[in-house]
Amino acid sequence: MQQKKDKSQASGQQKQKRNSEERKASQIPDKKVSRTSDIENSQTRKNKVEGKSADFKGKRSTGKYSPEKSHGSGKSPDLALSKKNNSQRFEYEDDHIFWCGKCNLPLIGEECGRCGSKGEVIRLSQPADVRFCSPYEREVLEGQLYSAFGCNPLGEKLILLNKIPGEDKTDEVLVDGFIFGILRFELSEMGYSFEPSLQGAKVLLKYAEGMKVELKKTNGHLNGKNVAAELVESFAGNIKAEDFVLVTAGSLTGYGISFIDGADFPGLKTPHETETRNEPESSFEAGKKVLRIRKVDSSEAFLHPETPNLGACVEANRKHLQVLGKNAINTIRGLVSRNEYRKLPVYVSFSGGKDSLVVLDLAQASLKQRELRAFFLNTGIEFPETVEFVRSFCREREISLEEASAGSAFRDQVTKLGPPAKDFRWCCKVCKLASAGDFDAGKEACSLNGKRAGNGVAYLTIDGKRKHESFSRARIAASETNPFVPAQLNIFPIRDWKALEVWLYIHWRGLPYNPLYDLGFERVGCWLCPSALAAEYARVKELHPEMHEKWNTFLLKWAKTRGLSEKFIEHGFWRWKELPPKMLRLAEELGISVLAKENIEDFEIEVVAGISPCKAGGFSIEAGVRGIREKEAADFMNVLGSTVYAEDLGMLLVKTGAGTVKYFSNGNLLASSETKEKAVCLFKEAAKQFIRLSRCTGCGICVKACPVGAISLNEKKPHISEACIRCGKCTESCVVTRYFDKLVPDLDKKLKV
């Protein structure tokens, strides 16, 4: 095993060295170049509304200002490839907003409520969850503009951010109806960077003191070209290698990426350099390359002279907000007033976030004659600001609040299960679903009404889930039941809203909101959630150093036991069980090993010798199991089939429809069936139940999922009685079996299938 590990690490180091040499040979800093394609990929949109698209390509301005009149029609080959590779991803139809060119305001409907003008369609990269730039994000953007270009031409303008796919926090910056650039958090540097768009670069050229490169006039094609020193007229001395630079070439303007420090430029120009203006195109690639052109053209771009405030934005959208609110209220009333639901309790799932805040306000407006309660699920790892906001808001609005707490559930289980990950989110079931299942609303409904609704629903919950939040939520319906809390019917009245509409509603209604949004958080869930952005996790360190330090100490200790470095934790690799390609590339770039050493857990299962034919016929699979006593298994394996436990023989026999499973006191496990395929399936199912037993958190979700009451917990260990009908619902609901493939990797390889 150690030889394989050393060989793998050596191979990785050689590959990294080759890549580094190749980058040096081409003099193209791959970190910046690879990420600049995000802008082009995110901008060229399919013409669905009025045949227009918010691309970075521009037309010549015909007026004093150009609030994104430059809608290109060409399709990017990168985008075409991206769409081909993501053909299964949901495509949003409402991936746009409007912009009033006269008032210089974003609109959520076509007509401006201030001047009556029709807004221009502004296409958004999907999932199109555009929002207002928060005060903290404005500070970050201003800092990046001053750091990179020595100026901030945006001043007090309304700025929108539209999240797009990226390494971490990545947002399009929309100003005056056009995309000014991209603000992204770099995991390699654990800090922000800003890349201008073509139009953003043209605006910056009017204000920036440095960061400019002037090329000799040429008839050759410049976009995407590497430019040699001989073709550069001037190169600002404050430029550093890998910086984005502002480029002029005669009537052409735009931006590019520097390969050198500006201070080194004078030494690169040859003594016999000519002043020829019309250089042949091939000479761009000749000599020492100092610059790559990203994009230049002859169009012009200006900032709009109007700088309206947030109040004007609310005024321009008031009519649209009234329609949105009315539709949401009708959705709520339409469902809660159905005959089967009229007498059921109604709750609002109030997390302290912006979406649940809006839903709570809408629910109050909808159900003036119906008792309404807010329900807050405190996971034990909430931000203190969130807990305080939820309690104070309900207290001031005289809203009845019921708070369920997961207590120390996370701390109790994290040492057993390890840190949660994006692809191993055990925390949600342990801290959320288990507590939600304990909620007493169903019992209360039954005691009040004597029975549930015809479909088993005992109470209604109004929830703020939205489809634009992520592609995984794109297909949510107006209402749905929760498979883990079957007595609950969830209603989603704002499922079609964008974040911009949510924020406009909040400001229109004058609602107080969670202060974390102004401090740099796009979401305000659990503060150590692996699905949160690394940018937000870094912000936790600044705002709550004591909380961050405690969690970071645990992560470092966990990493050390697996032979992983502090850099592994610092750059957020712990947030995946199985690293995606982007993180593997980052690990290679930073020289961080992601190969964890063998870690012997309390529970271990090791296949002895693949699939073997039996003398009596059929096939069997044998394995060694450590960490499970046969008595424990005897109390649990009814979930697979009828069990016979012979304590004097030290053996447990499980008879199933597919074959038999035998487990011996010495840890031997034997699964037998008539065919290879059935033997494999039976063995996997036995292994799944064994690991479920060993990793049981005692959350009790399986107890609630069982339709016949066959499951009980004894000192947080599950016991399955002979009443089990083997419907599989407890297995389906279990957080451990959900991540079986992550917990027992390479099982197929070990089985040689």
From TrEMBL:
Show where the 4Fe-4S ferredoxin-type domain sits: 687-716
Name of the molecule in the record: Phosphoadenosine phosphosulfate reductase family protein
Bias category Basic and acidic residues: which stretches? 18-38, 47-58
**Where are the residues of the annotated region Disordered?**
1-81
Q: Which NCBIfam families match?
A: PRK13795.1-1 (NF010366)
CDD domains, alphabetized: PAPS_reductase-like_YbdN
Tell me the InterPro entries matching this sequence: 4Fe4S_Fe-S-bd, 4Fe4S_Fe_S_CS, PAPS_reduct_dom, Rossmann-like_a/b/a_fold, Sulfate_adenylyltrnsfr_sub2
- Organism placement in taxonomy: Archaea, Methanobacteriati, Methanobacteriota, Stenosarchaea group, Methanomicrobia
Which Gene3D superfamilies does the record cross-reference, listed alphabetically? 3.30.70.20, HUPs
- Which superkingdom? Archaea
